Amino acid sequence: YQVKKNGKGHYRFYNDKDQLYSKKLMLEKELSQALYRNELMLHYQPQIDAQQGCVIGVEALIRWEHATLGMIMPGEFIPIAEETGLMLSIGEWVLQEACQQAKQWQDEGHMIKIGINLSAQQFEQESFVGTVARILKQTGVDPTYIDLEITESIAMTHISNVITKLKALKKLGVSISIDDFGTGYSSLAYLENFPVDKLKIAREFTSRIGSSQANHMIISSIVNLARSLNMNVIAEGVEKPEQASLLQQIRCHEMQGYLFSKPVSAEELGKLLGMPPFAVDFKGKLKVTGI
Ligand code: C2E
Ligand code: MG
Ligand code: MG
Ligand code: MG
Question: Alpha carbon 180 to chain centroid distance?
């Protein structure tokens, strides 16, 4: 493909025969080849224990490194993958790759949890539980460290099927998180019957910490809700020391965000694991060292 800029500063895409493509059509075509061209990779963002300051887990986040277009983020290509049906094979690749990486870290003595995002289509597949079982077995990873992230919208469709599936997954030894908790159009009723291990407080809430008393009440209510249901709770999108500090005070278990680290390659993450924990200062100000 050739990328050409027209007079108005817009990009246009041409194939070898100089035919104009829409960007979407182009990405669609390229994405269908991304898997066997080995252009997909996972980055890993650390998850920090709020009290100890150490890395206790990571979230696997997919990236597409295209030969000429550069790095393409999931927000841009996952919707296309879902539309074209490619998400099923991509999702399976993610599971395989993340479990393999987790196994490698486990063999090196790094017992950290790996969060893996699931797409709705992937989760809804009849064969999904079987696929997870097969990959766990093939990679030999300890499943206690595998954490599958589902969204509230996955949780809310065909509730009885979802519960059956989640229970089957839990039997395999993995744990389940609700991603972007609080942003979906869901009722809290499902939490009563779902075998969920962790709530991930959406970035939308974290970023507004300090903005209002209402925000404070919402976040502390989510933390208390999780704690009283014996669930873990992690805040996503922690960018500022003040946010981390408040999350510590209200006894949120874990934190994840740019304050600690952006998502990084497996190799770079390996280096972070050997470093001392973040210094955590309980007296209001949080000093970030280490990473
Ligand atoms: P998510 O699962 O909620 O992941 C968190 C997103 O927030 C990531 O964006 C991460 O890079 C970003 N983030 C983390 N900390 C901060 C922060 O402090 N500030 C800000 N502004 N952003 C932060 P990313 O990697 O672009 O992924 C976006 C979404 O794409 C993910 O949201 C997830 O829904 C989806 N996704 C990513 N990888 C996969 C995958 O392998 N499979 C599926 N099905 N979905 C994926
Ligand atoms: Mg996620
Ligand atoms: Mg999230
Ligand atoms: Mg999300």
Answer: 10
Residue in 48, 75, 51, 73 with CA at minimum distance from that of residue 259: 48
Alpha carbon distance 142, 109 (integer Å): 12
pLDDT digits (tens, 9 = 90+) for 67-94: 988 999 999 999 999 999 999 999 999 9
Rounded to two decimals, what is the model's pTM? Answer: 0.92
Which residue's alpha carbon is at the smallest distance from atom 3 of ligand 1? 180
CA of 179 to the centre of ligand 4 (A): 6
139: enclosing H helix or E strand: helix 128-139
Q: Name the E strands within the chain.
A: 2-5, 11-14, 20-21, 40-49, 55-66, 70-72, 113-117, 146-151, 175-181, 198-201, 232-235, 254-255
Angle between helical axes of 87-107 and 266-273 (0-180°, round to 10): 30
For 146, other C-beta atoms within 10 Å of its C-beta total 24
Nearest CA to ligand 1 atom 34: 117
